[in-house]
């Protein structure tokens, strides 16, 4: 089985997709994860309410949009929703079932889940990378 890159997405914050920028040709299989609770899920709650769908459907609709933008072959991408709210627990659970190449986190985790990278480094035996924050042009 090919080792997967775990990719955490945060649809609520403008820098919640910065982990996508870390993907490169070495990422042969990607597992994209979005949480359905916690601070990163506020946009999904709003989307579910405005489109009159349940939260899981809103999560899948978001992931479908990300998958379309990534343009990866279907056998190279596994999109997942998870109840959350702990990204560390959800990512560690996934890593227990799939071989992991590396873990990519958006820069928003530095504000909403400080210490997440360190927690993951202790339970996932793969590099954990956090995308850089956006720089405001003043």
Structure commentary:
The protein is an alpha/beta fold. The protein is built from five helices and five strands. The chain has helices at residues 42-51, 55-70, 87-97, 109-112, 116-123, and strands at 4-9, 30-35, 77-82, 100-105, 128-130. Strands 3-2-1-4-5 form a five-stranded parallel sheet, with helices on both faces. Helix 3 runs parallel beside helix 5 (116-123).
Order of strands, main sheet, comes to 3-2-1-4-5
Tell me the β content: 15-25%
Could you estimate the helical fraction of the residues in percent?
Answer: 25-40%
Indicate the radius of gyration in whole angstroms.
14 Å
Largest sheet: 5 strands, parallel
Mean pLDDT across every amino acid position: 88
**N-to-C order of helices and strands:** EEHHEHEHHE
Structural class comes to alpha/beta
- Strand element count: 5
Q: How far is it from the N-terminal to the C-terminal residue, by CA?
A: 47 Å
Multimeric state = single chain
Unreliable stretches: none
Enumerate how many helices there are, as a single number: 5
**CA-based shape:** globular
């Amino acid at each position: 089985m090919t080792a997967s890159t775990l990719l955490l997405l945060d649809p609520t914050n403008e820098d919640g997709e910065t982990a996508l920028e870390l993907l490169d040709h070495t990422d042969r299989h990607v597992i994209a994860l979005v949480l359905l609770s916690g601070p990163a899920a506020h946009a999904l709650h709003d989307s579910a309410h405005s489109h009159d769908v349940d939260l899981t459907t809103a999560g899948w609709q978001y992931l479908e949009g990300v998958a379309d933008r990534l343009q990866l072959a279907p056998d190279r991408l596994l999109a997942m929703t998870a109840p959350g709210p702990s990204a560390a627990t959800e990512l560690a659970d996934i890593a227990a079932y799939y071989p992991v190449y590396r873990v990519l986190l958006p820069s928003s985790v530095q504000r909403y889940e400080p210490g997440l990278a360190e927690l993951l480094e202790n339970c996932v035996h793969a590099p954990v990378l956090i995308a850089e924050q956006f720089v405001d042009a003043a």
